[in-house]
Amino acid sequence: NAGVTQTPKFRVLKTGQSMTLLCAQDMNHEYMYWYRQDPGMGLRLIHYSVGEGTTAKGEVPDGYNVSRLKKQNFLLGLESAAPSQTSVYFCASRRGLNTEAFFGQGTRLTVV
Amino acid sequence: RKEVEQDPGPFNVPEGATVAFNCTYSNSASQSFFWYRQDCRKEPKLLMSVYSSGNEDGRFTAQLNRASQYISLLIRDSKLSDSATYLCVVNNGPSGGSYIPTFGRGTSLIVHP
Questions:
Q1: Strand-by-strand arrangement of the B4-6 sheet
Q2: What CA–CA distance (Å, rounded) separates A19 from A7?
Q3: Is B59 helix (H, G, I), strand (E, B) or coil?
Q4: pLDDT, tens digit, for every residue of B46-95?
Q5: Which of A11, B46, B56, B82 sits in a 20 to 30 Å window from A75, CA-based?
Q6: Do residue B43 and residue A104 have CB atoms under 8 angstroms apart?
Q7: B100 vs A48: CB contact, 8 Å cut-off?
Q8: Beta carbon pairs, A and B, within 8 Å
């Protein structure tokens, strides 16, 4: 049971490049979340999904897009990367609204 | 007022000490509560759930005080390996109208020899 898997784990982008981060969970969870974490800032929610085919904006959605075409996958896209998007990105999923969340191992993204 | 607040610390304690963290929440309709542990540059991992009656797991005790709207985490006999950031999480659940788990910013614990 892999849990929540994020790919890639590390990436360096040049300003203006685009990329997609993949989050895959094998626990049949309904709810999935993308966070970014910067030093001293805690976790900040970018986008989330309450089920297959749904997405919603979180606290810091600008510059990101998401898709949830399959229940097990939640994709985070950066259309035109900026240095301000240098961060550690975590994906999480959970079964229900009162259950615990499980996190992926994170993606360390540097935009130069 | 932030929805979930924690003292960022750091709490700097010697091995063997007992240390306690609190986490306050603002939504009285909050339904479930958790403590997570996050090591440097790693993902948060569930430490324990927090039940109304309180619960214990080895050296760790979690308690919920609904009247005062806070949860606590007590660590006894601290080990060097307990050094980490501890995040509290509050779920408002469907009746609270929220699909988003609310994370505190974390409390840093440093255990020294």
A1: B4-6, B19-25, B70-75, B60-65, B55-57
A2: 11
A3: coil
A4: 999 998 889 999 999 999 999 999 999 999 999 999 999 999 999 986 65
A5: B46
A6: yes
A7: yes
A8: 54
Residues of B in contact with A104 (CB under 8 A): 43
Give the C-alpha separation, B11 to B19, whole Å: 8
- Amino acid identity at A97: L
Phi, psi for residue A104 in degrees, rounded to 5 = -75, 175
pLDDT tens readout for residues B12-55: 999 999 999 999 999 888 889 999 999 998 999 999 999 888 99
Secondary element (H or E) of residue B2: none
Closest CA to B30 of B57, B64, B6: B64
How close are the terminal C-alpha atoms of chain A, in Å? 36
Question: Within 10 A of B96 (CB to CB), how many other CB atoms are there?
Answer: 17
The number of beta carbons lying within 10 Å of the beta carbon of residue B97 is 9
**What distance in Å separates the CA atoms of residue A42 and residue A59, rounded to the nearest whole number?**
12
At B54, give phi and psi (nearest 5°): 80, 150
For chain A of 112 residues, list the mean pLDDT of each consecutive stretch of 10: 91 97 97 94 94 95 97 97 97 93 97 98
